[in-house]
Here is the input.
Amino acid sequence: MPIRQLSETMINQIAAGEVIERPASVVKELVENALDAGASRIEVVTAGGGLNLIRVTDDGSGIPEQELSLAIARHCTSKLAEDIHDIRSLGFRGEALPSIGSVSRLSIRSRTAFGDSAAEIGIEGGRVSAVRPAAANRGTTVEVRDLFFATPARLKFMKGERAESSATGDVVKRIAIAFPSVRFTLAGSDRSTLELPATDDSAEGSLRRVAQVMGADFPDNSIAIDAMREGVRLTGHVSIPSFTRANALQQYAYVNGRPVRDKLIAGAIRGAFADVLPRDRHAVTVLFLTLDPAIVDVNVHPAKADVRFRDPGLVRGLIVGAIRQALADSGIRAATSGAAGMMAAFRPGATSFGHGGPANGHRGYEAAYRASASGFDPARSSQRPLDMGFEGAGFDHRGLGESGQAAFDAGPLASADARAGQSEATETLLGMVLGAARAQVHENYIVAQTRDSLVIVDQHAAHERLVYEALKNALHSRAVPSQMLLLPEIIDLPEEDAERLALHSETLARFGLGLERFGPGAVAVRETPSMLGETDVQQLVRDLADEIADNDTVETLKERLDKIAATMACHGSVRSGRLLKAEEMNALLRQMEATPGSGTCNHGRPTYIELKLADIERLFGRR
Here is the structure.
């Protein structure tokens, strides 16, 4: 077949295959155009999950009538000058509108601030209609009908209406977080409406917008991030370790205001939370990276969701370091959702009260009712105060008799001065985050009291975290001890991998791995970290080479050492079942308060739960 020039329509349909994957992709491109036009209000309406109708209306600057035909032409844009490396807008490729028009019925109606009237242009499957007058307010309305009617094969890959609507909602929310001063409205054919009122561009306004999208409980369970390194600034919020989700869908990342899904950023977030979260849980994050457009490439893919950093190691190190520092500085905090879960467990009919859940509760109420109907017998009642017998056996109608009270006799009272000193010390402890230890129950749980809450601590999990942090500090405050191999391990690698490892040899040596170049395409390993014991050196070095190629870091080795430290901490901590004195319990609480990350154990489980006095009073109907 001879070489020939493809038609403009076919070129646009090929481009649409990359840019327009589903209705949510259309919404993303049109909303970004509205934001680039300076809109303060954006309204999105969909029908049929977006396949039947997508309408995006904004109050932006509008498109002049004479430029409407250019707006739908391929590679025509007002957002890019001469330098492809200086991109300061969301859109810049000039592909979205012609791509959408090639696979749908598209109409654009727009009016500028200085125009006497609006104008409209349409495209149907790539065929362009003439520009005609129209009636409209200032701004632009883009209407897309019958998406993919011109490429019916693509329709077979679409999911159900609910799934497509959900994807569209996620796109709008993801963009809205970066633009808190813009009002967003999304309405669907199911009559549900998402409204995100405008706030402002301040830090408080940004957090209010985040709360609109991610829920009102996120601000109370998050930590602010603000760090800078070599001209790259990172701001935003991350959840405390005890506030997590089952997936990573609520991890939002932005580069110069552009929503991105970047594996380097996602990997950095995982690395930062590696030893404070369970493997199957994910942190909730909203992170904004601000840097010179010249050192980040946003022109990686037509969908503009991927980016490439000139110095990926710098960006990853900034994210990991900033999050870990923020977690350390935030002290010990329990998620507000923990108390809510405990409250739910205490409610009548909760499944935690026994097998069968509510059914057991109803049976209990029925039994009580039958007992009351047939006459109450205190000697046989399961609700009797204490099984100490009745009259004649130390029980009287006023409560505990003398013999019953004797079991609670604490002996002679201390002097008034001693009691006053104890009271002052206890009052001081009550003001601490974890309060004063009051008891140990089931030989594993410490019950403590603060001025306004009840705290339950898992002693094994808590001490495990304390030992782990001490081991890590010792591990990373000096060079890791290494063991000399009897015979050097020679590992053949691609030349570029060997070169990368050689460049990081000093850092690897600090972690106990001694290696050097051994001719072209090989390295010789002479020392390995003592903590690893017998290890597969070949696989370790290859994993390190792969990680350096991806992220320009050597975190794999550090993570392996941290895992060994976690195992050592687990076996060296206070075991469940060990009785603790009051002084030991209070000492453990004070150490927890002084140790970063002690709100969770090495495996990511919570080390304590806090129940506020107000919640306890609600349980007993006092509020």
Notes: The radius of gyration is 32 Å.
